[in-house]
Every structure is written in C-alpha cells, then in structure tokens.
Design a protein that fits this description.
Radius of gyration: 25 Å
Strand order of the largest sheet: 1-2-3
Structural class: alpha+beta
Distance between the termini: 40 Å
Strand content: 15-25%
Number of domains: 3
Number of strands: 9
CATH topology of the largest domain: N-terminal domain of TfIIb
Bound molecules: iron/sulfur cluster
Shape: elongated
Order of helices and strands: HHEEEHHEEHEEEHE
Helix content: 25-40%
CATH superfamily of the largest domain: ADC-like domains
C-alpha cells in the first residue's frame, strides 16, 4: 500500500470510536498454520486450505490458488470441516456377526486381524496362477471399494498392496483423484 495512503488510513482509524477490544479482534484463523489440500469428496478435486492451531483443525476453506476451483467449493466441499471435527463421527469398529440382528463394538486390532485372516484364507483358496497356458496371477473373489474420503496416499497403498501385491482385480473408488 502507498505510504501516504497507509498513513491517512491509520489516522482515519485512530479517529474512529473503536474500543481497544474491537481493534484487537481478528479472524479466528489468524496465526493458524495453513495446509493446502484437496477436497476429499469427489473427483473434481477442488483445492482447500486447512487451518490448524494447537494441533487441531479449526477451519477448512476453498483455496484461491487452486487452478481447478479458484477458491470456490460446492456446498458439500464447503462443509468438509464437519467431516473432520464432528462429535457424531463413529470412532469404534462396528461388527455385525453372520445372522445377527445387531451391531457390536470391537477393538480395531481385532478387526484388522480378522480382515487379514479372511483375505489370506480366500487368497489361498482362489488365487489363480494361470489358466491353460496364460499366466494370470490374479484373485477375483476379494474386492476393495474405497470411499471418497480416502486420500491419495491411502489409494496409492491400496492399489500397490491389493493389486500389485495380492493380485486382487476388483479395486474401485468413488473418487478417482
Ligand atoms: S465435492 Fe464439491 S468441493 Fe469437493 S471436489 Fe467435488 S465439486 Fe469440489
């Protein structure tokens, strides 16, 4: 800003009837760390800015520097903060046993162990190395369906482990960013 313009603006502000309390007010994002990211909801891939203070996400807004969205977000993307910070978010593993009519809370370690056991069991049973003279090295009886809230790194690892490592063919994700 021009120095004279700045000085006259300062003078004008000094002459206004602002209380010290008002002049010290600022946006809650002031002094927050800003992390550029991508909206997790759909394949458009709009840019977001994530504001972090004291190790906690305090706000998520559109990123004006994004060549895709230029700071705009659709109503869903504009509510991404609620996805991250929400008291209703389920944080326990929910398990429903075969033929059961209700959900049970289980520890995460238990669920991970069970998934690994089931994948190993099915892979040992169904993995096809070849058909006739054609090399296949694939497994078609295990599938992975990802949600749009999974990030790029998680999708990269899923593709690398499930497809490259275990030979699983049916891998899909709602958001192909
Ligand atoms: S959900 Fe909306 S804000 Fe998010 S990437 Fe898609 S269009 Fe953009």
């Amino acid at each position: 800003m021009d120095r004279n313009l700045f000085a006259s603006r300062e003078r004008a502000l000094r002459n206004q009837p602002f209380s010290p309390n008002s002049t010290e007010k600022g946006p809650r994002t002031r002094s927050a760390t800003v992390v550029p990211s991508v909206c997790p909801y759909c394949a458009v891939g709009c840019g977001q800015l994530i504001y972090v203070k004291g190790g906690k996400v305090i706000d998520i807004e559109g990123n004006p520097g994004s060549p895709i969205s230029e700071g705009t977000l659709c109503p869903k993307g504009a509510n991404t903060f609620q996805l991250s910070v929400n008291p209703h978010r389920i944080k326990r593993v929910k398990y429903r046993a075969p033929y059961s009519d209700h959900w049970e809370d289980r520890p995460l370690d238990w669920a991970m162990e069970r998934i690994a056991e089931r994948v190993k069991e099915v892979r040992e049973r169904d993995f096809m190395e070849r058909r006739d003279r054609t090399v296949l090295n694939h497994l078609t009886t295990v599938a992975s369906l990802g949600g749009a809230t999974m990030d790029n790194e998680e999708n990269y690892l899923i593709k690398k482990l499930f497809n490259g490592g275990l030979g699983i063919l049916p891998i899909e994700n709602q958001a192909r960013i």
